[in-house]
Amino acid sequence: MTSHVFDRDTAVTRVAEGEFEASLDRGWWIVAGPNGGYLAAILLRALQESVGDAERVPRSLTVHYASRAAEGPVRVTTRIERAGRSLSTLTARLEQDGQVVALALAAFARPRPSPEFHDAQMPEAPPPESLATMELPPEASVPMRERLETRPVFGERMRATSTHALAGGWLRPRQPRQADAPFVALLCDAWPPAVAQHRALAGAPTRGMPTVDLTIHFRAPVPADARPDDYYLGMFRSRTLQSGFFEEDGEIWTRRGVLLAQSRQLALWS
Fold first, then answer.
1. Which of 16, 91, 182, 233 falls between 20 and 30 A from 130, CA-CA?
2. Which of left, alpha, beta for 52 (phi over 0: left; psi -120 to 50: alpha)?
């Protein structure tokens, strides 16, 4: 029996070749629908099952969100578009009641020998134990916030006061659980939108900011010695809000400075 709430709520059951069933839980809702990272985690689980090769780990996942989902059963259909000697390319679609909710394109690959360099530097951040947890007012609280512990590092405590749309901080599940690729996918969309920090939004009514598409590049595996109570540092930045759309770039780091993932999403100021 699955004991952790994240594993339970992202579990997929194979019902046929390339077909899986899952169930969306309202505990991962943001405003009026499920969090995009939560749906990405479910899609990634089905894709991992379809690859069926532990050495071929996720390298890239892009999800396009086509319609809003409701709580309850969904079906995920996957297809291996090509499986080469080291790289597999797959597609997936998540449907509910015959309507497409999300479409995904993914790459899985074995490690390849190559030169390496690491110019990306982990942002400076105080230790999470020295910071207060994020407390949102009741009108801004959403169910998913009860599933994650968040300790702000970047951005202002008050929204819409900054000259830059920068946000983020330390994250971990409230119920301890060792991170893996599906959980990293969740973290890439787990922080309130950075765009809400920008002073250009001062006085604007609070509204939903649904994701149009989310791309995640998995840069390193979660270290084998990661602890279930570890924190992960997320930093998110937006540079342009125009014609009702904005982008957000993200990074997810381990406490020891390993870059686990880079993300970019396009979202709608609805």
1. 182
2. left
pLDDT value of residue 12: 98
Return the closest-CA partner of residue 157 out of 132, 124, 130, 129: 132
In one letter, which amino acid is 145?
R
Beta bridge partners of 106: 61, 90
pLDDT, averaged across the chain: 93
Q: Which helix (H) or strand (E) holds 84?
A: none
Alpha-carbon distance of 236 to 209, in angstroms, equals 15
Least confident interval from 189-203, 208-222, 240-254: 189-203
Helix (H, G, I), strand (E, B) or coil at 76: strand
**Report field, pTM of the whole predicted structure over 0.85:** yes
Long-range contacts of 91-96 (CB under 8 A, 24+ apart): 92/43, 92/46, 92/47, 92/50, 94/39, 94/42, 94/43, 94/69, 96/24, 96/69, 96/70, 96/72
pLDDT classification of 155: cutoffs 50, 70, 90: confident
The b-or-e profile of 140-168 (16+ CB within 10 A means b, else e) is eeeebbebbbbbbbbbeeebbebeebbbb
Higher pLDDT, 260 or 195: 260
Q: Give, as one character, the DSSP assignment of residue 143.
A: G
Q: Which domains does the chain have, with CATH numbers?
A: 5-111+126-268 (2.40.160.210)
Q: Which residues pair with 233 in a beta bridge?
A: 170, 253
Q: Which two tokens stand for residue 184?
A: 């990293």
pLDDT in tens, 43-66: 999 999 999 999 999 999 999 999
